[in-house]
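User: Second chain of the day. Same drill as before.
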Amino acid sequence: MSAERVIFGFHTVLARLRADPKSVMEVFLDESRKDARAKDFAAQVERAGARLMRVAAARLEGMAGGGRHQGVVARVVAATQKQTLEELLEGLQVPPLLLVLDGITDPHNLGACLRVANAAGAHAVIAPKDHAAGVNATVSKVASGAAEITPYFMVTNLARTLADLKDRNIWIVGSDERAGKTLFEADIPNSVAWVLGAEGPGMRRLTRESCDLLVKIPMQGQVESLNASVAAGICLFESVRRRGA
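Assistant: Same format as last time:
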């Protein structure tokens, strides 16, 4: 039997409905909401063929576990990857743009990273199974729909996966405050996997040693580090800028 989970928030539920409507089992809408947004949302749920129920706000609070649900909660079949990382890379017609997260265990950070990766057009986000957050309701809510459409691969051996990416001529570029060059100065290929560690400890030693190149984000103020999702956005959009040029 397929595993189930709860997602909540307008953007998150609509993103799942658009991406995989058959996986949405039930949608619950705050019965007190009569505004235009709620009416439009209800119409989209019905067009998608999902079951819609109007319930009391207290029931939504319980289902969302205190999360900011906006009056919308859905029960869905837990998503499974439709293809492997290898299959995804084989099917690309453009240079791969990947984001690798090493040590990101906070669901809010992961959700924000998935959101920025999707905004930058990254083809996938990769993380180790043993030291990373999985996709849950909080991740989906923070990602604002991106968790439902951005491939997220949790791999058994991150160092081995990075080696496999190298075999595909994908450069492994790590963001490290100790690097000699900034990401604006370094020569960064179009086929790239950006690697980021958690704020503070950074990448693990073996991950750092697996990188082809280390670059730093030039810090102009007094703070010494950035949130992982902010750093991810800077790095990914630097690749976007260079591709556009």
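The mean pLDDT is 90.

User: Great, on to the next one.
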